[in-house]
Amino acid sequence: MESFSVIRFRRLKEIVLYPYAKVVAPLLIVLIVLPQFIPVIYIFQLDAIIIAVLFAVSLNLLMGYGGMISFGHAAYYSLAAYTTALLFNHHFVSFPLAFAAGPALAALGAAVLGVFVVRTGGHYFLMLTLAFSQLIFAVIYQWYELTKGDDGIAGLFVQGLLGKPINYYYFSLIVVVISLTLIYGVLHSAFGYTLQAIRDNPARVEALGVRVNRYKLLAFVIAGYFAGVAGSLFAFFNGQVSPEVAYWTQSAEPFMSVIIGGINSFFGPVLGAALYQVIGTQLSRVTQHSLLITGVVTLAVGLFFPRGIVGSIAELHIFERGERRSDDNTTADTGISEG
Amino acid sequence: MAEESLGTSYPLSYPLSYPLSYTFVPSPKISSGGSFVELIIQQLLSGLLQALVLFLMSAGLMLIFGVSGVLNLAHGAFYMLGAYVLYTVTQYSTTPFWFAVVVSVLIVGCIGTVVEVLALRRVYTGGLLYEALVTFATAIIIEELVRISWGSQQVTVPRPAFLGGELNLWGVILPSYQLVILLAGVLVGLGLWWILYHTRWGVFIRAASMDREMLAVLGVNVTRVFTSVFTIGVMLAGVAGALAAPTLSLSPNMGSQIIMDAFAVVILGGVGSLKGSLISAVLIGEIHSVTLLFWPGIGMPLVFLLMVAILLIRPQGILSERQA
To answer: How open is the CA angle A20-A25-A28, to the nearest 5 degrees?
Structure first.
């Protein structure tokens, strides 16, 4: 009755030859080749960008496709970052295991919270997700014996091959590309279309016999998992974790990226996160209050270009392509018939 | 972030040292001399104080939400702003304390008006996402501006000299400032009730929360009603911050910490129920201050659990009739 296949893609073609291949393939080649020729500092920046991209896209799965506006996405990010860091540094778990454990715990945290919050919607959902992330922040901040509180956990360095920044960059790139592909696949599976249908008209989908809350819960867990992947990547990228990764400014980052990029598309948040990171790092050279300016920028984008960069460009018909129209906006109906 | 502390004055040997900077820590001079019963009573009183702050905040939150349907995520930021502005007013002038409070609340109200007119007004019809975006961005901008203007370090507002004393109440020694704040807060609450239910303006506000269009058709300037509601709501947060300021150390993240408890009050009390939010504010305030005696740090998870539990058992809140 209910097809609950998340990873079973509708057509393999959608993954291999998906509509954006003409843009994505050259971009990937650039991302692979470029680090060979640029100074290490820029490799770090690229690494930060791709991690932020994954974080933002995981939030967009919730916000853009699930219609669940979460303000506490840093909770899962920080859960994973701290889990990975603690296991690796204090319990001497091997890198792959510690790395895998982070997202798993993040998904678990998302599942525990999700059971309660997917029943609610709108304002309640928003309040509870924000409250949960504040709770995680408070626990990290206060539980000194475990998390070292404000001192954070330093010295997260992988030995061996991944110890070199460029190799860790390639590792991050592989992880991020795989994750993005998986998220894309999830969103273009029967599950993804059903999720979008739920976003557009929950009552109607419910009436069709779909258990709406289960779908929302699964989306919540998947989003938490991939936020966790980003968090674990960040922990080793940064070399240390501090309670800052759980603070609400951290939740603001993917949120603003999604808004800047455009909530109604898959690649909007990718662009938004990249832009946000570039603006943020450039500004933070000049001032330590870069958040102020990015906050103003986001406010301006939200007020004057509510569909974000990608949405506004699409409105201008610069990219007048059939693919874009058929990709995200008109597919909800096919999803219902499959779901 | 690294250099600032969340205002804990407790040794780190506790399982969880208590971070919430709006918590009223009993002054050591009093708590060291008193008996256990006295300590409990003092703690209950400081819980009541916290409840009052939460009630004022959540009343503003609900007023804005009830009329314009906007969940003001910047509410904590305005609370913080109230405290910081009071700090500056008392620092650079010798006005009496109550006057300083009034001035800082008015300043916060002006800032709220500016926010409403410039940004929030445009998104009333834009749905939850854009309302949330505007208020969230406002919160971030205010917090960063406070960091720029006042720095990330903690600052303290000195208690007004004439209220620095203690009051001996049936053998229990209580700091008189807390009692005065309590009284002032109750007066503000009563004033709000009077405005809402006994003035023409209050009729407009209540009508706007029911049917915006009908009110406009009847010839009321609805835009102005919305602006005034947001201003009043924000001023309530400012009052809470200003009244609480002398009892705590101010830091730029105090706003984002109290917002969770304000949400908890709204969820527990039910949207639109002032009585319910009063009860839940007392409950949450007392949870925070009583657990401080036995297990500092358990308060916040407890409040969160309470929030989740009430959503499962009674989603409309403890008193409210309205379906959530």
So the answer is: 120
Q: Is A54 helix (H, G, I), strand (E, B) or coil?
A: helix
Give the right CATH number for A12-245+330-338 from 1.10.8, 1.10.730, 2.30.30, 1.10.3470: 1.10.3470
Q: How many domains does chain B have?
A: 1
- Helix, strand, coil abundance in chain A, percent, nearest 5: 75, 0, 25
* Rg of chain B, C-alpha, whole Å: 19
**Is residue B293 situated within a structural domain?**
no
Answer whether residue B238 shows pLDDT above 90: yes
Chain B, 6 to 35: residues with Cβ < 8 Å from chain A are 6, 8, 12, 15-20
pTM confidence score: 0.82
Task: Give me the phi and psi of B239, to 5 degrees please.
Answer: -60, -45
Domain for residue B323, yes or no?
A: no
Residues in chain A predicted with pLDDT less than 50, given as ranges, are 1-7, 9, 319-339
Sign of CA dihedral A111, A113, A115, A117: negative
Interface test with A, best of B128, B133, B263, B306 (most A CBs within 10 A): B133
| SS3 state of residue A189 | coil
Cβ contact B59:B274 at 8 Å: yes
State both tokens at B108.
């916060």
